[in-house]
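Honest question from a wet-lab person: if I give you the sequences of every part of a complex, can you actually get the arrangement of the whole thing, not just the pieces? Trying it with mine:
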Amino acid sequence: GAVVSQHPSRVICKSGTSVKIECRSLDFQATTMFWYRQFPKQSLMLMATSNEGSKATYEQGVEKDKFLINHASLTLSTLTVTSAHPEDSSFYICSASEDPGGSGEQYFGPGTRLTVT
Amino acid sequence: GQNIDQPTEMTATEGAIVQINCTYQTSGFNGLFWYQQHAGEAPTFLSYNVLDGLEEKGRFSSFLSRSKGYSYLLLKELQMKDSASYLCAVKDSNYQLIWGAGTKLIIKP
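Yes, you can. This is the full assembly:
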């Protein structure tokens, strides 16, 4: 149980275009979803926390207008990287929790490798 | 500020035992997690400690001392597939996960 999927697993896009990444909880209702970014040889950096039906809470330094997060249902959250630039190339990972505020265990998706050319 | 420290890299021999240490300084404590992450993949959950002591799960064990802000992950009977990064993470008073940079474990035959 507790499976989280992400789509796509890999995406290459041109600079200036937008990319949408989906995160789905397959067998549980994810009240809270988290979006992380990980650069090579670095640890996970939390970008934002989203609760179903409400606006996402962004971490300091993360531009909310550039990284649009929509958590429209209890099983789906999307991250859209708008006007992507090469420096946005990274490994994006979502995680989901059944508990409000993410107090319970977080289940991770397999990640999405974004390359911006 | 909040800080999680763990060694950058460790090397061990197949069949041996290795201990990966983690020290933390966080605003509040609501549990400590260990995750395994293979290159290019997302982290997978290994263990969770919220009370002091040792939690054993097969070849892996995790220890916590809250008074010392210290934990370790013990891996026994090492296998080549254990080569990965091991991430220590602490949930702070806001239930936010604070991540260490990870320890890259290299297993040699």
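Two things worth pointing out. DSSP finds no helices and eleven strands in chain A. The first strand of chain A starts at residue 4 and ends at 7.
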